[in-house]
Amino acid sequence: MEPDDLTTGYQIWATDNVIYGPVELPTLVNWVQEERVLAGTWVYSGSRDAWQRAAELEELDFLFRQKGQTGPPTAPVLASRGEAPVWIKPAMLRRIKVFANMNDAQLERLLQFMEVAPARQWALVVKQGDPGDAMFLVLDGEVRVRLLIAGKETTLTTLGPGEFFGEFALFDHGPRSADVVANKDALLLKVSAAAVQKLANAAPDLAAPFLLSICRTLTARIRADNKRFQDSVRVARAAEEL
Question: What is the pTM of this model?
Answer without folding.
Answer: 0.65
